[in-house]
Amino acid sequence: MSQQINLFNPIFRKQKKYFSSLTMLQALAIIGFACLLLAGDAARRLRALQEQAAATDALLVARQQKLTEFRVQFAPRQKSAGLAAEIVAAQDELAMLASATATIERGGFGDTHGFSGYFRAFARQSVAGLWLTGVDIDAGPSGAQLGVQGNTLQAELVPQYMQRLATEAVMRGKAFSSLNIGGAATPAPAVGATAPVPAPAAVAPAFLHFSLQSSGAAAPQSLVAK
């Protein structure tokens, strides 16, 4: 009977050295140097952040100081009662002006262009043997109302004069509703005066009085030219 006896002791086996003490020292040195670099970079960044925070704080303090100065300089003023009254008065005046403008645009004040156009029309349309002694113009709310008085040598000249007036632009839309033609009146002598004796050689030509009145005209009072 045979038996094998192992006399090999593992202690005596050659051990492999993975890290020597020199290698470990070098690794520790590298790690330490890397830590120093990281610490230096972190310290640099921290200083930059601290400087930025200090600048921000200084800017904030300056802005707060400016805000305080503006609040003191532009403090809210108390509401002025006089100013409020002036605003109300200005609004009332504006409303009145707007109402007046609307009334003028609607023609509520009658003819707002004056009377010169009528007198130019009367001057242009003259008829030989007819002359005016008075013109009455009333600028009422419904438009200008006309009254014309004059003398004529012949009654037929009055309708001709009316037709010529109708061609004027200012007379468009206006019509004379009444026409009166009468004889010339002889003035009565004053009390206690001797009536004049007419000269037999010279006889004044006879003439007729006439008057024209536009439609709806009352006694005009605004303008009388005689």
Write the layout of secondary structure elements.
Blueprint lengths: L20 H53 L7 H26 L9 H9 L5 E11 L2 E10 L4 H10 L9 E8 L24 E7 L8 E3 L1
Antiparallel strand pairs: 1-2, 1-5, 2-4, 3-4
Summarize the structure in words.
With 226 residues, this protein is of the alpha+beta class. It has helices at residues 21-73, 81-106, 116-124, 157-166, and strands at 130-140, 143-152, 176-183, 208-214, 223-225. The chain has 4 helices and 5 strands. A hairpin with a 2-residue loop joins strand 1 and strand 2. It has a 5-stranded antiparallel sheet. The chain has 3 domains: 22-72; 85-109; 116-186 and 206-225, Alpha-Beta Plaits (2-Layer Sandwich).
Q: What's the short version?
A:
With 226 residues, the protein is of the alpha+beta class. It folds into 3 domains: 22-72; 85-109; 116-186 and 206-225, Alpha-Beta Plaits. The chain has helices at residues 21-73, 81-106, 116-124, 157-166; strands at residues 130-140, 143-152, 176-183, 208-214, 223-225.
Portion in helices: 40-55%
The averaged pLDDT comes out at: 76
Order of helices and strands: HHHEEHEEE
Strand content: 15-25%
Q: How many helices in DSSP terms?
A: 4
Low-confidence stretches: 185-193, 217-226
Instruction: Summarize the biggest pleated sheet.
Output: 5 strands, antiparallel
What is the number of E strands? 5
Q: Compute the CA-based radius of gyration.
A: 59 Å
Kindly give the count of domains. 3
- Categorize the overall geometry: rod-shaped
CATH C-level of the largest domain: Alpha Beta
Structural class: alpha+beta
